[in-house]
Predict the structure.
Amino acid sequence: MICKTTPLVISSAATRRKNKKALKKKKRKGKEKRKFTNQLGRRGSLVGYTQTVETEEDPYGVEMVQAAASCRICVVRKRETMPDRSIRMVTSIWAFSDDNTVRFQQKLADGELYVPYSSYFSPEKISVTVPTEVKFYGIRYGTKPAKVQKTSWINYVFADVKSKPISLPILDSLPTPSPVHALQSSHPP
């Protein structure tokens, strides 16, 4: 007589609890990722830059090229270690498209003074007019730029001018002086 044994089966209740915990953890990570990306920078409706277009009738012609339509625009400071082991901070303006197809970088030069200005008729448009190099990266982190373009004019169009700027929680907890107190302290008797 041959005796068949069945393998030990983990209880279905324990399996369900384990799966439920994993599902909750996955949902939490998704919510945290959405919250992080919503707080990353400001909503942008357009990022564009100029490129030269030389024709016979206009040898100095330029045209505005769209880099990203619906995106997040943010300023990023990154620490880089130089070959001589010195450390320097590099500041860049980044635009990440909502469909994750465009990663646009404008690196700001050290020691340069940048004066962005807004348009009188559309205050949501900020222009940076200095000769610079913009880089387009693919969706994979760590790869070389897919495209590098020289330009002298970049427009950052924000979706909402009146939106509240992103603030750090520590700054929100600091007391703010009343306007009367600020006026009294700035004008000594």
About this structure: The helical segments are 12-39, 169-173, 179-186.
